[in-house]
Design brief:
Elements: H1 13-45, H2 62-94, H3 101-117
Helix pairs in contact: 1-2
Length: 123
């Protein structure tokens, strides 16, 4: 039997496809969180009289600060939107990949060899 110990173990494309789907879900969850944050800051933005600014930095008005926060949250969401689109393109492309039968058999042989090389513990 040939020694496959120096060859990399090929990942299974369907597993990677699932990993991309998980990444898409995480980005979408993060975008929902950002939307909730924007909604909350918009409520604060409508009630500037209920806000005050500390004196630790340069003087600034409450509305300017909430606008900065909202702007940064919008920017983050716009960038995540691009990430979401790119991940979806990757996901569609990845759906077409699979290992050949020969590559899958070779991978299984590598896994078997790895298991056989593991030291067996006895009590």
């Amino acid at each position: 039997m040939p020694d496959n110990s120096n060859e990399p173990l090929l990942p299974i494309p369907s597993d990677l496809y699932s990993d991309i789907a998980d990444a898409v879900d995480k980005v979408q969850d993060l975008r929902r969180t950002l939307k909730d944050l924007r909604d909350s800051y918009e409520v604060l933005d409508r009630s500037p009289e209920a806000l005050r600014v500390d004196n630790l930095g340069d003087p600034i008005e409450q509305l300017e600060l909430t606008n900065r926060v909202l702007g940064a949250l919008h920017t983050a969401d716009a960038r995540l939107s691009l990430t979401d689109e790119a991940l979806n393109r990757a996901h569609r492309a990845a759906s077409r990949l699979s290992l050949t039968d020969a590559a899958a058999d070779h991978r299984e042989n590598q896994l078997t060899e790895q298991q056989q090389r593991r030291p067996r513990r006895t009590r």
